Amino acid sequence: MFPSWLSILASIGMAVGPPLVYADQAVSIIRKKDSTGFSRDICAVLLFANITRCFFWLGNQFEFALLLQSLLMILAQLALLYICILNRPPHSPESIGTSTRPFSFWQWPTYTQHVEVLAGYIVCLTILTLIFGRVDLFISILGYVALGLESTLPIPQMISNFKHKTLYGFRSSTMLGWVGGDSFKTVYFFLQGSPLQFKVCAIFQLSIDFVIVAQRIFYGAAPPHAVLVEEDDLEQALALTEE
């Protein structure tokens, strides 16, 4: 266990630190007016995971700092999602109508559609919790779903990096925040005696973080071909205008 004062500081860091990791990413997208390189699926994973974790807390009241972290993360990801949709690239699947996902999941054209799905998910979880909230198995499953979802957080970004062979648009500060934050929370979970779900999923998530670090070293952060083509087209258009 931590000493009492260190435990308080660690709890504050756990509650506030993870949501703040995405502040620099949001500022970068606003500055460039382009969300290319940042997988919006990250917002989906964090929103669904943290909503589920809030319901898990109702049946297994773990540290309040972790509940507060979830509430702050939900607010942060709703804001980041709005920024990503507002600044999505013109070649995105929802912009050109080429989504191959069932029901175009999480590639809808409007922010409202995303919020409506999240609201529907909350309603479903509320109904299930009212029915099965006193069943230990249900609460345990909720925990594994919440933490299992969160542990897949880096996977959409890892896949995006692999497809584009670059980490263009994905902030190094976000990557380092993942590695540092997940390392800290893994240690925190073990020292605080958090539920097993937290420990197992934290180790898995940290391992994916290190894969992304390796991708950053191997691929670099040069603009992908699609972005270069758009920049060339823009330069040609400006040249024609000057003529």
Automatic annotation (TrEMBL):
Instruction: From the UniProt annotation, give the residues forming the signal peptide.
Output: 1-23
Give the membrane topology, semicolon-separated if more than one.
Answer: Multi-pass membrane protein
Q: Does the keyword Membrane apply?
A: yes
**Keywords attached to this entry:** Membrane, Signal, Transmembrane, Transmembrane helix
Statement: the UniProt record of this protein carries the keyword Amino-acid biosynthesis: no
Gene Ontology cellular component annotations, sorted alphabetically? cytosol; endosome; membrane; trans-Golgi network
- Where do transmembrane segments lie in this chain? 39-58, 65-85, 118-147
Question: One Pfam family from the UniProt entry?
Answer: PQ-loop
Location comes to: Membrane
GO BP term, example: retrograde transport, endosome to Golgi
PANTHER family per the UniProt record, alphabetical: PQ-LOOP REPEAT-CONTAINING PROTEIN 1 (PTHR14856:SF9), PQ-LOOP REPEAT-CONTAINING PROTEIN 1-LIKE PROTEIN (PTHR14856)
Query: What is the recorded name of this protein?
Result: PQ-loop repeat-containing protein 1
The source organism is Bondarzewia mesenterica
